[in-house]
Amino acid sequence: MTKNHGPSIKDDAKYEALRKEGMSKQKAARIANTPDAGERGGSAKDYEDRTRQELYEKAKQVGIPGRSKMNKAQLIYALRHN
């Protein structure tokens, strides 16, 4: 049975699976709270092909701190490493 991690975690089962894989609590929570994180087979554009505003919106959805002060290259780095 999946443990209830409170209202801050939207998908407790996904969070626990990610923690068992060795992810940090923060990264596992971010992924578990992203609505489309478990979907596969999407046809998303490469980060380099997106505008800064599109990258900013994705960073906002994922919960990356300090995103408003980042340029396009910094947003791409943050999205790939968080």
Descriptive notes:
The protein is mostly helical and 82 residues long. The protein has 2 domains: 1-38, no CATH class; 46-82, no CATH class. The protein has helices spanning 12-20, 25-33, 52-62, 72-81.
Show the helix and strand layout:
Layout: H1 12-20, H2 25-33, H3 52-62, H4 72-81
Helix pairs in contact: 1-2, 3-4
Organism: Algoriphagus oliviformis
Domain Rho termination factor-like N-terminal: 51-79
Region (Disordered): 1-52
Quick rundown:
Residues 1-52 are annotated as: Disordered. The chain has four helices and no strands.
Label this structure with key terms:
82 residues; mainly alpha
Tally of separate helices: 4
- Beta percentage is under 5%
Instruction: Work out the helicity level.
Output: 40-55%
Report the average pLDDT across residues. Answer: 83
Secondary-structure element pattern, one letter each: HHHH
Secondary structural class: mainly alpha
Largest sheet: none
Instruction: Tally the beta strands.
Output: 0
How many domain modules? 2
Q: Which spans of ≥5 residues are poorly predicted at pLDDT below 50?
A: none
Q: Which word captures the global form?
A: elongated
Q: Report how far the terminal alpha carbons are from each other.
A: 28 Å
InterPro entries: DUF7218, Rho-like_N, Rho_N_sf
Organism: Algoriphagus oliviformis
Pfam families: DUF7218, Rho_N
Protein name: Rho termination factor N-terminal domain-containing protein
